[in-house]
Sequence to fold (217 residues):
Amino acid sequence: MLEIEKNPDEIEKLSHKIIRERLPNTFRNEEEYGIAVRVAQATGDIDFATELKFHQDFIKNALNSIRSGLPILVDVEMAKAGISNYAKSLGIDVICAINDPEVIEMAKKLGITRSIAAVRKVLGEKKVGLVVCGNSPTFLYEVITFCENNRESKPLALIGLPVGFVSALEVKKYLYEKQIIPFLTNLSTKGGTPAAVSSAIYLLNLERKQKSYGQHS
Fold:
């Protein structure tokens, strides 16, 4: 019979120990490295974690957003489901508008993706702090476009890790080259909602620890 570790705290400790032994720490600080460890854990891919690119102000801006209680905008419902409990414990709303009837109607009328329409609706209506994207390149591109055209009201920080072979790499390169908003991204076709969500949860947990919440509570 196979003997496996069943204690969740021990599983996490062992996972982090293994990753830290294998993942080179070429990052600026422990916060950036901590995110890379969580991305490796969420994806099972240490090479992916080594690809991560951090704008120098990303950590500072993302934490300022969280401490200010600003809403978090996400691209898909899976991301909202992953982040919501952590965010709501800090009084932060998580917004996913992809299934909003107005967004669906706008997308049909203009012949655009619902992801694009969702960005236009939400960022056009309210101030958002952190944006989290792990799925949709068109969502990410629309956020970049908004930031270019609305520098005074742009979000504070952006996790841009969409996955795929159509436009994902190109849009991430565009984000990296433009430097228009403090970002976390990577420059390959790799990505995905688990990587984006795990990065956001790590940041949320930094603030939760200040308020005496447990890592998994």
Remarks:
- The mean pLDDT is 94.
- The domain at 53-210 is CATH 3.40.50.10230 (Rossmann fold).
